[in-house]
Automatic annotation (TrEMBL):
This is CD8B protein. It is found in: Membrane. One of its GO terms (cellular component) is cell surface. The chain crosses the membrane at residues 154-174.
Length: 182
């Protein structure tokens, strides 16, 4: 069975790719290990499928019926980052991909990257696009802080006060209207 200690990160969390294209999933490894295992969670079959093991020496061992032309792995010279390259994507490649390492007789599982393969990619909204950065992203724990935006007291207190003043200003108008119709 799996020991699902989620102690490794991965990038990105979700990939949407077009049929017949290729994609790459990166797995940063910050712990000592003897290599990285790649698995795919098959939602329809409800099981993990072993894809490939990549040793620190660069040797790859593939699972049963796994194509070496379709799946390839790469590791950095420092062995702190591994990637799984998937080519000629098809709908059967849909699933959640996990990188794993073995440390102290435990299988340490990454958080997973969900891959969706579609025939036509949706058009991006130009107003929500962020600039692409060539720098690697680092995950940092989020600190609890007051978020600036629609839910802060700086926004809702003046809105509530304005609504109250509006209601209070309507009272004399309603009284006059009521007296006229009597």
């Amino acid at each position: 069975g799996f020991c699902t200690n989620l102690l490794m990160s991965r990038t990105p969390g979700h990939i949407l790719a077009q049929t017949n294209s290729s994609t790459e999933i990166v797995c940063p490894v910050k712990r000592e290990h003897t290599g990285v295992y790649w698995y795919r969670w098959n939602q329809s079959g409800q099981h993990f499928e072993f894809l490939v093991f990549s040793s620190p020496l660069g040797k790859a061992t593939y699972g049963t019926n796994i194509s070496q032309e379709k799946f390839s792995t790469r590791g950095t010279s420092s062995h702190h980052s591994y990637s799984l390259h998937i080519s000629r994507l098809h709908g059967s490649d849909n699933g959640t991909y996990y990188c794993c390492i073995i440390q102290s007789s435990q299988l340490i599982l990454g958080t997973g990257t969900q891959l969706g393969v579609v025939d036509v990619l949706p058009l991006p909204s130009t107003s929500t696009l962020a600039p692409l950065s060539k720098k690697p992203m680092q995950c940092k724990p989020k600190k609890k802080a007051i978020k600036k935006g629609a839910c802060t007291p700086l926004v809702w207190v003046p809105l509530a006060a304005g609504a109250l003043l509006l209601l209070l200003s309507l009272i004399p108008t309603v009284r006059r209207f009521y007296r006229k119709h009597r």
